[in-house]
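Order emerges. For instance:

***
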Amino acid sequence: MLRIILILNFLLFSCAGYELRDRENPFEVKGIKSISVPMFVNKTNLNSVSNNFSKEVISMLENFKGLKVYSGNDGKSDAVLLGVVYTADGYDPIRNKDIAFLNTEDIEKLKNRSAFTLQTIKSLDVQVRVVILKRPKKEEVDFFINYFDFNKNMFPQNVFQSNFTLSRNLFIDNSFGDSSGASNPVRGVRNKGIEISNVNQQATQLASMLRSVIINAL
């Protein structure tokens, strides 16, 4: 019985310790009590990337106790978190993934037009690089924006660096019918909304992944 009680107490305090570590400022060991997050650099042709990714990362960092988080870069924080969103090959992050032929009902709606295939699923794939520099100079920030890479031997104030791969499927709206009403926007508008929604979800995903990596790395 005593052995069981000891094991339960060990598990209880272990969980409590992990929860405390999960909430406290993970950068304190590096002497960082405040951090600035400028707008993420967007190297893709996607809209809303810079604002959404920056906002989600700031919101995540604000949950750490003892860490002051600022939007932008006033040059007064202990560290600056820099992020860049790009594609691995430099091309469009949205690629065709699956197609389908029109069904009989949709073909009839086309009237005099010939039948054709439609894209049904597209992939949205981006890379994100995040670097945290301790009191960087303006030249170092500019270097990251242009090359988004740092060698720790050249930049010893680089306290954190990690790469992330984010991938989602976009399910394309190919519905037919009367789209003239304000309550029924054209397919292009609907699909643009789907794209923006998925970019927002990728920003949330990045913030969650970044939090886990930071906690385990520092």
